[in-house]
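**User:**
My hope is that you can spare some time for a protein that puzzles me. This is the protein in question:
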Amino acid sequence: MNSVSLNNLSRRNFLVSSGVLVVGSYAYTSGFNPVYANGTRTLSPSVYVAIGTDGVVTVTCHRSEMGQGIKTAVAQVVCDELEADWEKVVVAQAEGDAKYGDQNTDGSRSIKNFFMPLRNAGAAAREMLVQAAADSWGVDASECEAREHTVHHAASSRRAAFGELADAASKLAVPESPTLKSRENWNHIGKSRIHVDAQDVATGKAAYGADVTLPNMAIAVMVHAPVLGSSPLNVKVPDSAKANSRFIGIETIDATPGPIGFNPVGSVAVIAEDTFTGIKVAEELEINWSDSPNQDFDSDTFQQDLREAVEAPGNVWHEVGDANNMLEGAEEKIEAVYETPFLSHAPMEPPSAVANVVGDAVEVLAPVQDPQTTRNTIVGAKNFALENVKVTPTLLGGAFGRKSKPDFVLEAVELSRRLKRPIRVQWQRENDLQYDYFHAPSVQRYEATLGENGMPTAWRQRTAFPSIMSTVAAPNMVEPANWELDMGFTNTPYRCENQSIEAAGLKAGVRIGWLRSVCNIFHAFGANVFIDELAEQAGMDPIDYRLAMWDGMDVIQGALPSEPGHEFKIERLRNVLRKVRENSDWDQKIADGHALGVAVHHSFLSYVATVLEVDRSDPNYKVTNAHVVLDCGTYVNSDTCIAQMEGAVVFGLSAAQRAKLTFKDGTIQENNFDGYLIARMPDAPSISVELIDSDHLPAGVGEPGVPPVAPALSNAIFKAGGGRRRSLPLI
C-alpha cells in the first residue's frame, strides 16, 4: 500500500523558486503559496493557475476529487482560455481555505459555480503573457496571439514560449476583465480528456485516506454505540488484548448533547499499531452503553407514521383552483401511495482520516468533500485558531454526499490531541452502514381526477419525510425545507388548474443527510409512476401523455426563485424526452419477452430522460438496456458526462432493485453488503448516453442521472406484466 507523508505536503517544506506567474479570478491574496505538483512555491496574486519558468502550468483544483473528474475539468476550463498545451499541465489539490470561495463538492455545482471564474483565470494569464511578449518586442499587444503554449507575433515571425515569459509577466498587473475566447475557438472545453489521475488510480499509485501514513502514527478502530445518543459507560478489555504488544489502549468518546450536526457519536476507540490488531481487539471488547432517547426507534413504525402523515392535510406549498373539494366530491379518481426506505451512501471507501495535533496546531489529511467546512468545524469544536488548522483532501473512493460531514475527522483530531501523536481513524463497513447520514425514507400520496380528454382536472400530492434540517440544525426543525421540496415536488412539471401541493415532516431516531440527488430520488419516483398510471387510465402512451400535459407550458416555478439563466424550461424537458424516445426505439416493436419503461426529471438545473428495457423472463426483471439523454447546458468533458450517466444508472438500480435499511430498537439490522444489497457487475445493463449540445449555462452532471432510474424500472415492470409496484425496492 502506498503512503503519503503529511510533512511533504506542508508549506514550510516547499522549495522556493522565482519567476512564476500565478493568476486567478476569485480572490487575489498577496503571499498565498498554493500546493503545486511540481514542488514550487511563489508569491502569488491568486489561486487557480501558475506558470513556471520551465513552462509547466500548474492548475490548483479547489474541489475534491472522488472519481467525478473535477480535477480534469477544472484544468480543461483554465487551459482553454490560457491556450496551454495539455501535455504541459499538472493539477494540484488545494487545501481548505476561504480564499477559494465555496469548496463544498456536492450539489453538482463545481462547474456551474466556477466556470466563469476559472475561464477568467486562464484568460488573465494569457493576456499577461501576451503583454509581456509585446513589451519585450516593442509592439502592441493586439498584434500578438497566444496559442499552443507560445505567444506569436505574426508580422515578425517572432515567438516566445510561456516559460520564457513567465518571469516578466508575473510583474504585470492582473487584468480585471480579460477578454474570453468565443465558443467556436474552444480547444479543451466540451472535449473528451482522460482524467489526470486515471493512470495513478489504475496502477494503485493514487493516495486515498487509508493510504496515508506518518512517522509514529497509530491506528484507531472505532466501536460506535449501537444506538444514536448512547455513550460508553464502562469497557472491559480482555487479557489477550492486553498481552498484545501491538495494542496501545482504548479511548472513549461520549455522545455530544444538543443538535447532532457533524459531531462524533458515542464510541470506543481501539488504539493500535496496525489496523488488523485494532479490529481484532475491537471484536473482543465488552462494552456497556448508556440509555438513549432513540433506543425504541423502529423503521417499520416510522414508515407507518409517514403513511398516516400523508392521509391528513399538510403544509400547503402551492394551491390553485379548488382541488380539495373536487377530489372529495369525485365519483371516480385515481389515487396511489409511493414509498421509499432508508438508504446508505455505501461508498467503496469507508470513512478514514489522519490527524496530527502538535501543540496548538493540527494538520488533517482525509477524504472529505468539503475541506473548508471541515476546517471550520474543527475550529468550532476543538477551539483551535483558524490559522493553525490545515485540511487537505486525499482522493475520495466514492462519497455521494457522505464525506461532506466530517464527524470521522473530529474523531481523529480528538484522539490525536489526547495521545499526542498522529492518528488515523479507520472505519469498517459495519461502522459506515451503522452511522451513515442516511437518505430519508418517504411516503407520497397522489390523487387526481381526469377529464374527457384524459388530462387531470384536479390534482393533489402530499409528501412526508424526515428533513435533513432536523439533523444539522435545531432539533425542533422538523418540517421539510423549501430547498428539499424544490427537488422534484414543489417544482413539479405536472400542473393542473386545480392543484394542491402539501408536505409534512417527522423526526427520525437516526442521522439524516444528503445522498446523491437527495429528495429528487423519491419525488421523481412518485411523480413519474403516477403519470404512467394516469396515462394507463387515459389509454394513452406514457410519453404522449407527458407531452400532452406540457402543451402550452413554458417555465416552471417552484418554492424558490429560479437562478438567472437557469429557469426550468419545459421545452428542454420535452426535448430530452423526444430524444430518448427516438434512441430507445420506443415506438418500434420490441423483442418478445421484453418491455420498456420511461421517466424524465429536472434536477440540479439539468434535464434527464431515461428508458429502461427489462426482460420479463427473468424473475427479477433484469434490466438489459438503458437509454439516457442528458441536457446539462454547456459541458466541459464529454467522456466524464457519459460516465456520470452510466454510473447514475447503476447507482439508481441499487436503490430501485434491492437496497433497503431497517432499524429495530434503534439499531440498524443490515451491517454489511450481505444485508444491504447493492447492484453488482452482472446487474449492469448496456447503457447508451446522448449529450445535448447546448450553449446554455453549465448545470449539474453528477447527480441528475439518478432520479429517473427507479420510476423507469417500475414502469417497465408494469409493462412487462409485473403489476404496478409503488414501493422501493421494487424486487
Observations:
- The chain has a mean pLDDT of 92.
- The first strand starts at residue 21 and ends at 23.
- Residues 110-137 form the longest helix (28 residues).
